[in-house]
C-alpha cells in the first residue's frame, strides 16, 4: 500500500472533523433547553458524524459500516431539520412537512437496506452495479428533498426567526449540496468518484464551523467566549485527536516499510505511547498547569464566576450529618478557588491576637497558641490586605509589620497566602492557604474574588457566633433561674437551723442533749453557709482577700494531692511569687491537673512546670493523652454546661479560666489529637501588676 499525500491529507481531514464534531456535541448536550428545540438532535447528528469520520480512518470509505454510519447521521440531520421548523411552530401550521420528512427518512432507510445487500452480494459484478445505481438514485432523491425543506425553512420564516435559522440552515445546506454534487457525478459516471468521496469530511468541517459560529454569535458579533469546561474538554479532544493522527501516520508508515520488524516496532510504539499517556495524564501538577495555561491564554478572566459561586454555595450550604463543621468548610471554600490542597482558620482571641480555630486537610503543620499577635490582627482588620507570602519572602512587598507575618509562617515554605475575613469592618478570622500544585502570583482578579468571598464567609461566621452566644445566654438564664431557687431554699434552711440552734441554747434541759444538738446544728449550718459562699463566688470574681503566693510551693501541694492516684511530676521549682487568692488558684490548678489525668493513660505522667517570663509567672500542665481538636477547644472546652464526662456539669474549665482571669492572668491551651495537651497559666508576678497595666494602657493609647 502506498501512502500518497492526498490520502494522508484526507485522513487528517477526517480526524479533525471527528474531533470538532465530538467537541461541539459535548458542548451542546448540556445546553439543550437553553439553546433551542433542535440542539439535542444536532448533538446526536454530530456524534454520528464523528463516528462516521473515525470509521473512514479505521475501516475505509467503502466499508459497509462506514456507509451505515453516514446514513444514520443523515437521518439525525433530517431530525434536526424537522426540529428547526418547531422554532416558530411552523411544524404545526404547515401540514406537508411531516409527510415529506417521513418520505425522506424512508428513502434513507432503503439505502441502508442496499448497504446490507451490497455486503451480501460482494464480488457479484451485476448485483454490485445494480445496487450502486439504486443507492446513488436514493441519495439524489434524499439530497434534493432535504434541500427543498431547507429552502422552505429559511424562506418561510419571519425576519426575526431568520436571525436564528440562518446558521443551522447554511450548515445543513453545506452537507447536502456537497452530496448532491457527488451523487450527480456518480450517477452520470456510473461509478463512485473516490476523490470527491474522500474529501466529504471538508463539508462536515464547514457544517461544524457554521453551527459553532451561529451558536456563539451574540448581538451580531462572532466573539468567541466558550465556557471553561468546553475549553478543557475541547483541548483534551484535540490532544486525543492529535495522538490518534500520529498513531495512524506511524502505522501507515510502518505498513509501507513492511517486514516482520515493522510489526514489532508498531507494537512497541503502541505500548510506549500508552504507558506515557497513563503516566502523564493522572498528574495533578500537569492538570493544574494545563488549567492555568488555558485560562491565561484563552479567556479574558481567570475565573468562571458562575461556576465558582455555585461551588462556593454548595460547599458552605452542605448540611448533611456527615458534612464537615462550618469552619472547616470555610477554609475549603477559599482553598477551592485557588486550588490550594489544605488550609487553616485563625480567629480572634480574647487578648486581641489570633489563634487556631480549624484545620482543613493540614494536620502536620505546627501552630503556636498565639498564631498572630494583636498588632498583626489589627493590620489585617484596618488594611483588609490579602497577603502573598511569596512576595513578602522575595522582598517585593513593603509596609507589612512583622506581627502580621510571624516566623512560623515565614519559615514554613508550604504556607502561601493569608486571606482576612471581615464583617462590618471587623476582623472575624484569617484563612491561611497552602501552596497549590502549580504556584503562581496572586493578581488583581484573585484579590477581588477572595475579598468578596471573604466578606461572605465572615457573615456566616458572625451569624454562627451570634447563634452560639444566644444559646449560651439562654442556658445561663436557665441556670440562674435554677440557682436562684436553690439559693433561696438553702438560705431559708440555714436561717431555720440557725434559729433552732439559738433556741436550743435557751430551752434545752439536758446538758448532753444540748451539747449533741449544738454540734449537729452547728455543723449543718457551717456546711450550708460554705455552700452559699461557693455559689456566690461566681459573681464576685476576685472579691476574696489577696495574699502573696509562692507558686512553686502551691504546685508542690497540688502534686501531693494526687500522689496516691497518679504520677504527677513537678519539673522545675523556680521561685515565683504572685499576689492573688490562694484557694481559688489551687482550685483552678487542681481542676486542670485532674483533666490531664483523666485524658491520660494510667502509666502516663502529668508534668507541672513553673518559670518566669518577663513580668509573668508561667505555669504549664502537660499531658500526653488523647488531645482535643481545635473545634472542641473553641466550642466546648470553655463553654459552660458542655461536658465530655457523663456525670460532669461542664463548668470546671470555665470556672478555672474565670478564677485565673480574676487574678489578672490568662489561660491558654495547645492541643493535638492523639498527642496531648498543654495548658499555660500566665499570672503577673508580685509587684509587676501596676507595671503591666501601665504597658497595656500605653499600647491601647498608641493603637
From TrEMBL:
Molecular function, one GO term: ATP binding
Signal peptide: none
Transmembrane segments annotated in the record for this chain: 6-29, 41-62, 68-85, 97-116, 136-155, 167-188, 194-216, 237-258, 264-281
Cytoplasm is among the record's keywords: no
Known catalytic reactions: ATP + protein L-histidine = ADP + protein N-phospho-L-histidine
Top-rank taxon: Bacteria
SUPFAM superfamilies membership: ATPase domain of HSP90 chaperone/DNA topoisomerase II/histidine kinase (SSF55874), GAF domain-like (SSF55781)
Residues covered by the Histidine kinase domain: 485-687
InterPro entries: GAF, GAF-like_dom_sf, HATPase_C_sf, HATPase_dom, His_kinase_dom, Sig_transdc_His_kin-like_C, XrtA/PrsK
EC nos: 2.7.13.3
Name under which the protein is recorded: histidine kinase
Organism: Croceibacterium atlanticum
Amino acid at each position: 500500500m502506498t501512502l500518497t499525500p492526498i490520502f494522508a491529507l484526507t485522513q487528517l481531514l477526517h480526524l479533525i472533523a471527528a474531533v470538532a464534531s465530538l467537541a461541539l456535541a459535548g458542548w451542546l448536550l448540556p445546553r439543550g433547553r437553553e439553546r433551542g428545540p433542535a440542539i439535542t438532535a444536532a448533538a446526536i447528528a454530530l456524534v454520528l458524524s464523528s463516528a462516521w469520520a473515525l470509521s473512514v480512518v479505521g475501516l475505509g470509505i467503502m466499508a459497509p459500516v462506514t456507509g451505515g454510519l453516514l446514513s444514520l447521521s443523515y437521518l439525525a440531520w433530517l431530525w434536526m431539520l424537522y426540529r428547526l421548523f418547531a422554532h416558530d411552530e411552523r411544524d404545526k401550521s404547515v401540514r406537508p412537512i411531516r409527510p415529506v420528512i417521513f418520505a425522506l427518512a424512508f428513502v434513507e432507510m432503503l439505502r441502508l437496506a442496499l448497504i446490507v445487500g451490497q455486503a451480501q452480494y460482494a464480488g457479484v459484478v451485476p448485483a454490485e452495479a445494480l445496487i450502486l445505481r439504486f443507492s446513488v438514485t436514493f441519495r439524489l432523491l434524499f439530497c434534493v428533498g432535504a434541500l427543498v425543506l431547507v429552502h422552505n425553512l429559511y424562506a418561510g420564516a419571519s425576519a426575526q426567526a431568520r436571525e436564528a435559522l440562518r446558521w443551522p440552515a447554511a450548515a445543513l445546506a453545506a452537507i447536502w449540496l456537497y452530496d448532491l454534487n457527488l451523487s450527480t457525478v456518480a450517477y452520470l459516471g456510473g461509478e463512485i468518484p473516490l476523490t470527491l468521496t474522500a474529501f466529504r469530511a471538508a463539508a462536515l468541517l464547514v457544517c461544524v464551523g457554521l453551527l459553532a459560529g451561529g451558536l456563539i454569535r451574540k448581538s451580531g458579533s462572532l466573539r468567541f467566549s466558550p465556557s471553561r469546561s468546553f475549553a478543557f474538554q475541547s483541548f483534551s479532544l484535540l490532544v486525543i485527536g492529535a495522538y490518534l493522527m500520529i498513531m495512524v501516520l506511524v502505522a501507515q508508515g510502518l505498513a509501507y516499510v513492511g517486514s516482520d520488524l515493522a510489526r514489532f516496532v508498531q507494537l512497541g510504539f503502541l505500548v510506549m505511547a500508552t504507558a506515557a499517556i497513563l503516566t502523564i495524564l493522572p498528574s495533578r501538577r500537569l492538570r493544574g498547569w494545563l488549567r492555568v495555561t488555558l485560562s491565561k491564554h484563552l479567556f479574558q478572566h481567570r475565573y468562571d464566576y458562575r461556576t465558582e459561586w455555585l461551588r462556593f454555595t454548595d460547599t458552605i450550604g452542605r448540611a448533611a450529618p456527615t458534612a464537615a463543621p462550618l469552619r472547616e468548610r470555610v477554609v475549603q471554600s477559599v482553598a477551592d478557588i485557588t486550588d490550594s490542597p489544605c488550609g487553616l482558620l485563625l480567629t480572634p482571641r480574647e487578648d486581641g491576637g489570633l489563634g487556631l480555630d480549624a484545620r482543613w486537610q493540614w494536620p502536620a503543620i505546627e501552630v503556636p497558641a498565639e498564631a498572630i499577635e494583636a498588632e498583626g490582627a489589627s493590620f489585617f482588620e484596618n488594611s483588609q490586605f490579602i497577603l502573598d507570602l511569596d512576595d513578602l519572602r522575595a522582598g517585593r512587598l513593603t509596609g507589612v509589620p512583622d506581627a502580621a507575618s510571624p516566623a512560623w509562617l515565614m519559615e514554613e515554605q508550604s504556607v502561601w497566602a493569608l486571606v482576612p475575613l471581615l464583617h462590618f469592618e471587623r476582623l472575624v478570622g484569617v484563612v491561611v492557604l497552602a501552596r497549590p500544585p502549580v504556584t503562581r502570583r496572586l493578581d488583581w482578579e484573585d484579590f477581588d474574588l477572595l475579598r468578596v468571598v471573604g466578606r461572605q464567609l465572615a457573615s456566616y461566621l458572625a451569624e454562627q457566633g451570634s447563634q452560639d452566644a444566644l444559646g449560651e445566654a439562654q442556658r445561663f438564664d436557665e441556670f440562674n433561674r435554677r440557682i436562684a431557687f436553690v439559693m433561696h431554699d438553702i438560705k431559708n434552711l440555714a436561717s431555720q437551723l440557725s434559729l433552732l440552734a439559738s433556741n436550743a441554747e435557751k430551752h434545752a434541759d439536758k446538758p448532753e442533749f444540748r451539747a449533741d444538738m449544738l454540734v449537729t446544728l452547728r455543723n449543718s449550718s457551717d456546711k450550708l453557709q460554705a455552700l452559699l459562699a461557693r455559689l456566690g463566688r461566681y459573681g464576685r470574681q476576685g472579691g476574696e482577700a489577696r495574699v502573696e503566693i509562692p507558686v512553686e510551693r502551691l504546685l508542690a501541694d497540688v502534686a501531693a494531692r494526687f500522689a496516691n492516684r497518679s504520677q504527677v511530676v513537678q519539673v522545675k521549682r523556680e521561685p515565683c511569687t504572685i499576689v492573688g487568692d490562694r484557694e481559688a488558684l489551687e482550685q483552678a490548678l487542681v481542676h486542670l491537673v485532674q483533666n490531664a489525668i483523666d485524658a491520660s493513660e494510667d502509666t502516663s505522667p502529668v508534668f507541672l512546670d513553673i518559670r518566669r517570663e518577663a513580668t509573668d509567672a508561667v505555669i504549664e500542665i502537660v499531658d500526653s493523652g488523647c488531645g482535643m481538636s481545635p473545634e472542641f477547644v473553641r466550642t466546648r472546652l470553655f463553654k459552660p454546661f458542655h461536658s465530655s464526662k457523663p456525670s460532669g456539669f461542664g463548668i470546671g474549665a470555665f470556672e478555672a479560666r474565670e478564677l485565673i482571669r480574676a487574678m489578672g492572668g490568662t489561660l491558654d491551651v495547645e492541643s493535638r489529637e492523639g498527642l496531648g495537651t498543654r495548658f499555660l497559666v500566665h499570672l503577673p508576678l508580685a509587684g509587676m501588676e501596676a507595671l503591666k497595666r501601665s504597658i497595656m494602657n500605653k499600647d491601647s493609647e498608641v493603637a
